Amino acid sequence: MTDITDIIDKLFYGNSVTDDELAVIISCDKYDSVLFEKADAVRQRVYGKEVYIRGLIEISSYCKNNCYYCGIRAGNKDAERYRLTPDEILSCCRKGHELGFRTFVLQGGEDDAFNDEIICSIVRRIKSEFSECAVTLSLGEKSYESFAAYRKAGADRYLLRHETACEEHYRKLHPADMDLKNRKKCLFDLKSLGFQTGAGFMVGSPFQTVEDFVSDIRFLEELKPEMIGIGPFIHHCGTPFADWPDGSVALTLRLLAILRLMFPEVLLPATTALGTLLPDGRERGFKAGANVVMPNLSPVSVRKKYSLYENKICTGEEAAECLNCLKNRIRSAGFEMSFSRGDYKNIQQRCT
Ligand code: SAH
Fold first, then answer.
1. How far is CA 243 from CA 114, 251, 269, in A?
2. Does the pLDDT at position 334 exceed 60?
3. Rounded to whole angstroms, how far apart are CA atoms 288 and 312?
4. Sorting pLDDT into bands at 50, 70 and 90, what band is 113?
5. CA dihedral 138, 143, 144, 150 (to 10 degrees)
6. By mean pLDDT, which of 96-105, 224-233, 268-277, 310-319 is the weakest?
7. Phi and psi, residue 83, nearest 5°
């Protein structure tokens, strides 16, 4: 029997581990406190006590895709659809900027009404009004040319969770017209264009196995993303997975800690999904190695309509209230909210 503390030490000192060792540590809940302590020490070394905030603006609930897990899938006829105008998006940024945000994340379903010209013009407007701010896009799969145009317009970062690195599992989560190879290609395109790139996956998605997590981690090692987004799967009644159980908070926290140990410099959010399943889920996430949080800056009138999963938190409050609440949560966990842009810190690069 492999000694689990030896595996944790290997991760802590940056040594490689086998697939079997990874599977063992993902499956074992006995050493979580050791794992969290080590992950916290690594985060402390790279990022100190700072937790970065990103203002999330959910620009459209229209989506042409039909992912089986997602509440805004095209096939969900009960989903309420909306799209923000460029002026509305800019006014969300203005409000966010006044509150101190220096990163805006524009996320949405794959909505062709937001063509490249419109997206580029929004990015240019944000960058010209708030030149010191970072713009992150999270708008799904696009062509290399589209990504290149967004980069040229000034976008700094792109979030595109790979969802699962395993072909077989991917096919169980998505209809046949979606393709894992293309999603992975998009991620490598984004990296090659100089985006700070975010990949990631849900924890506890239907049919997921421990081996799938191992593939996810191996894929992340290959991609070397600057950001990794993971959060528990949460069921939604308008999807084929309505009756599946939600993902485990404990497993999400363990995976956050493992990712922090394996990717010391990565920007790792404590996600809204984690806070949805457990009131102090995000605080626990920070203690397990997460160092980013993404409060909602979307207009309150549309928040409930961007319903990826059920009972999503923070759909009623104004941005300022959310920010205050989070500031207290971050402090109570022993960390400090940072209003800086919060770019990726590559310690190795800085030392050479
Ligand atoms: N259209 C964009 C944004 C998708 S929404 C894109 O394709 O990248 C952002 C993330 O929410 C998804 O990548 C997915 O991992 C997560 N998500 C979707 N449905 C979910 C659910 N039911 N429970 C938890 N997370 C979910």
1. 33, 20, 27
2. yes
3. 22
4. very high
5. -40
6. 310-319
7. -140, 140
Distance CA 203, CA 215 (A): 13
How far is the C-alpha of 113 from the C-alpha of 118, rounded, in Å? 8
Q: If you take atom 19 of ligand 1, which residue's CA is the nearest one?
A: 70
212 and 164 Cβ atoms separated by less than 8 Å: yes
Determine the average pLDDT of the residues in 250-263: 98
Structure tokens, 158 = 């792109």
CB of residue 326 inside a 6 A radius of ligand 1? no
Paired tokens of 308:
């990826």
What tokens does 312 get? 């999503």
CA dist list (Å): 4 to 25, 26, 259: 7, 10, 16
Residue keyed to tokens 């996956």:
201
List the one residue out of 269, 270, 271, 275 whose CA is nearest residue 313: 275
Q: Are 266 and 226 in contact (CB under 8 A)?
A: yes
Pocket test for ligand 1, best of 309, 310, 312 (most atoms within 8 A of CB): 309
Q: What is the reported pLDDT for 266?
A: 98
Q: Which residue ranges form the domains of the chain, and what is each CATH number?
A: 50-351 (3.20.20.70)
Nearest CA to ligand 1 atom 8: 140
